[in-house]
């Protein structure tokens, strides 16, 4: 019997044009600068092949070296400056919409929850990363 995963959503509006937002979201050197939920975490490496069927791997680590993991998977659908869909190594799906709005870009991320952390903790962590991206993109 297949169980349906809980899908969570995080969102923000970035005060920057959609093409700039897309570039900063999808360039590995930029990903290394924003892909963390708090100042005590970082992404020392980020690589990907940004195309349908392409793979990606972003190494996330605590700066004190106490913990780290690879956030990796395969891109299922890449539509430039509009949409990303990918499957993580554990089979969970992530869908990201980039929507042009007055004065900026709205980003909506829908992700299937995992079973190790509370839904609240996952929601907070993903939102913190998205907020970090917003701050990075608006300062760039």
From TrEMBL:
Coiled coil: none
Top-level lineage group: Bacteria
Domain Activator of Hsp90 ATPase homologue 1/2-like C-terminal: 15-138
Family, as annotated: Belongs to the AHA1 family.
Name this protein carries in UniProt: SRPBCC domain-containing protein
Native organism: Niabella ginsengisoli
Taxonomy of the source species: Bacteria, Pseudomonadati, Bacteroidota, Chitinophagia, Chitinophagales
């Amino acid at each position: 019997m297949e169980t349906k995963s809980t899908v969570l959503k995080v969102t923000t509006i970035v005060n920057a044009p959609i093409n700039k937002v897309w570039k900063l979201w999808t360039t590995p050197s930029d990903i290394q600068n924003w892909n963390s939920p708090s100042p005590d975490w970082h992404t020392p490496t980020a690589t990907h092949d940004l195309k349908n069927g392409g793979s990606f791997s972003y190494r996330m680590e605590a700066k004190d070296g106490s913990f780290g993991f690879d956030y990796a998977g395969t891109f299922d659908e890449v539509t430039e400056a509009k949409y990303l869909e990918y499957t993580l190594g554990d089979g969970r799906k992530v869908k990201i919409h980039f929507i042009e709005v007055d004065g900026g870009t709205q980003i909506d991320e829908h992700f299937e929850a995992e079973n190790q952390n509370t839904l609240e903790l996952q929601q907070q962590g993903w939102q913190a990363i998205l907020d970090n991206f917003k701050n990075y993109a608006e300062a760039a």
